[in-house]
Amino acid sequence: PENVRVYEFAEKVNRSVGEVIGVLFALGMMVTKNDFLSKDEIEILAEEFEVEVTTVNPLDELEIAEDHDAEEDEANLEERPPVITIMGHVDHGKTSLLDRIRTSKVADKEAGGITQHVGAYQVEKNGKKITFVDTPGHEAFTEMRSRGAQATDIVIIVVAADDGVMPQTKEAISHTKAAGVPLIVAINKMDKESANPDNVKAQLSEIGVMAADWGGEYEFVPVSAHTGMGIDDLLETILLQAEVMELKANPNRKAKAVVVESSLEKGFGPVANVIIKNGTLHVGDNVIVGKTYGRIKAIKLDDGSNAKEIGPSTPAAIVGLNEVPGAGDELIVMDTDKEVRELAEKRAEYDRAKALSKSTKASLDDLSALI
Ligand code: GTP
Ligand code: MG
């Protein structure tokens, strides 16, 4: 990454070497004409001079990227459960549907402590696991991006049969399509007198989502979260789609996960609800999650039980971080606590420098206004 010298950068952005050195000096970084710029320095300079630079994973150490994103040997890959994100308009029954799926499929253990807040659950059907992520209707777009997006394999669009296609239904569909994620439509509330599934099909066909039984390419499954009608069909449809996708991961490597949501919990401290994307996460692992870090103290599954380790596509709440990470942050396992701490500090430092570079610019502007 350190392959641009100060004078080369100055030439590229049409500035004098003095200006470049001056900007960094103002931030407490001493460089000379022939020094190589670090990624952080390049980012700060780009910000300052308002130029675009392409930096790949600017926050990550090169070794981490290599370690985690290395081409996986096919022989190490094993089948993993699909991760399903449930989306749709407010009140169309996303949470009810998920509740129904869980209560009929998950042995009802006493939910303890922090598990009520896990927005992700795993169920089993025909001996296959399926991971579900719930999203609130009113935040469909941002939620899709920040919570499930990075881990989502398939989206279920829930449409109430009595209400039909609504603004957030359309929004959810357009973002799912844009993300290139396959979608399945669940027409919910079929138990209602006023249910009109054909209307839902007609409305969706108008926006390019044609039902398979109407000659289109999308599976529509009529369901009722209240009576349980169609739930088995829905799960089977999901498993069929997942089979086609041949979802795989390598459970025998250091874990990589994504934060679905996070909070500060009494008695536990910072808690992050994550879904494992690859590898296996163990209690005792040193992790960095965005700008937070720590050693995994406990892994809590969606049924309230504790696990020692969890593999690909498993949702869980993890305890042991120094602070609350952000939704969408990536969890990476590293070998030592020193490594995660140092990288976390680097990321924090980078943020401070960026913020500082902004305020420096502002004060210079203020100054020229005064003159
Ligand atoms: P948000 O999270 O706010 O977007 O809503 P949601 O999509 O999760 O809907 P939720 O599951 O909270 O259900 C909204 C209302 O619809 C509740 O009053 C449910 O009881 C009702 N409802 C959900 N599913 C069904 C169903 O299959 N049949 C009937 N009759 N009512 C349902
Ligand atoms: Mg809900």
UniProtKB/TrEMBL annotation:
Tree of life domain: Bacteria
Keyword Cytoplasm part of the UniProt annotation: yes
Coiled coil: none
Record keywords: Cytoplasm, GTP-binding, Initiation factor, Nucleotide-binding, Protein biosynthesis
Regions that span the bilayer: none
Domain Tr-type G: from-to ranges: 79-248
The keyword Ligase appears for this protein: no
Binding site for GTP: 88-95, 134-138, 188-191
Region (G-domain): 82-230
Example GO molecular function: translation initiation factor activity
Compartment(s): Cytoplasm
Function: One of the essential components for the initiation of protein synthesis. Protects formylmethionyl-tRNA from spontaneous hydrolysis and promotes its binding to the 30S ribosomal subunits. Also involved in the hydrolysis of GTP during the formation of the 70S ribosomal complex.
Family: Belongs to the TRAFAC class translation factor GTPase superfamily. Classic translation factor GTPase family. IF-2 subfamily.
The protein's name in its UniProt record: Translation initiation factor IF-2
Taxonomic classification: Bacteria, Pseudomonadati, Campylobacterota, Epsilonproteobacteria, Campylobacterales
Gene: infB
